[in-house]
Design goal:
binds fe (ii) ion; globular; 260 residues; Jelly Rolls; 10% helix; single chain; five-stranded mixed beta sheet
Length: 260
């Protein structure tokens, strides 16, 4: 399948592979999450398809790479296939990020839903009783979604087409990602199945908020502008991704409650 929503980044999506010119993205590293690698995150994993999602790490135009490296950021592109595993829509397996050295503040991340189809699960670190707060983010194409510090996160494709997202975060931060809670609990705290949103019985859930993301131009978060371009033009606006301990992450400023 060819997808024309490459939004000026110069790539195509064809049958489980990103198409792009290697000269244009010299440092990009293709990767792929197979059913066997990702099925642990589904309560019913008896049935699925060979490839769940795939993408490219360091998806940075060769001409822009110095801006990413010098400022200590990286960009990744992810494509989530349409379809279900069991009765659940295909999603990323989920992880928490590592802490800023000397703090208990985890590095945040920003995602752009380049296409329609995405919903995001954010869940707090478990409290002393093992309970989590859940934020379920509903998006449309162009939305930018902040994964606040100390929130584990999952991206999910609720559509019938490949869903494409880009994320920007501290360079090489994925090396510190922790997948263990999502493995132990068999996915995230809230899941979307054919029958709607369901609580994962392996969790204690303290609260659930259903939201849409808000813009925050002083942090480089503008719906109608490609995240990649906002970053290249003003990398300094994204300092909150590198030094989150110096910023307030007010959930009411980042998200607005909605009904679904
Ligand atoms: Fe992440």
């Amino acid at each position: 399948m060819k997808n024309n929503n490459s939004a000026g980044l110069g790539f195509t999506v064809i049958a489980n592979k990103l198409g792009y010119k290697k000269d244009d993205y010299k440092s990009a590293i293709d990767w792929l999450k197979s059913f066997d690698d990702g099925k642990y995150a589904y309560l019913d994993s008896t049935k699925g398809q060979d490839v769940l999602y795939y993408g490219a790490r360091y998806f940075e135009k060769t001409a822009d790479e110095k801006i990413f490296v010098d400022n200590d950021f990286m960009a990744d592109l992810t494509v989530i296939n349409p379809g279900k595993v069991g009765n659940e829509y295909i999603k990323t397996v989920g992880h928490y990020h590592g802490y800023v050295p000397g703090t208990v503040v985890a590095y945040p991340e920003i995602y752009e839903a380049i296409t329609d189809g995405f919903e995001y699960l954010l869940q707090s670190e478990p409290d002393g009783d093992g309970a989590v707060d859940v934020i379920w983010v509903v998006t449309s194409a162009g939305d930018k979604v902040v994964m606040p510090p100390n929130y584990g996160h999952v991206s999910m494709n609720f559509s019938n087409k490949p869903a494409i997202e880009m994320d920007i975060q501290k360079r090489d931060n994925p090396n510190q990602s922790d997948y263990s809670l999502f493995k132990e609990k068999v996915g995230g705290a809230l899941i979307r199945t054919s029958d709607g949103l369901k609580e994962n019985v392996n969790y204690k859930i303290k609260s659930i908020k259903i939201v849409k993301p808000l813009e925050k131009p002083d942090w480089g978060i503008i719906k109608d502008k490609l995240l990649y371009n906002s970053f290249i033009e003003s990398p300094e606006k994204f300092e909150w991704l590198l030094k989150p301990q110096n910023y307030m992450f007010d959930l009411d400023e980042l998200f607005e409650d909605i009904e679904i």
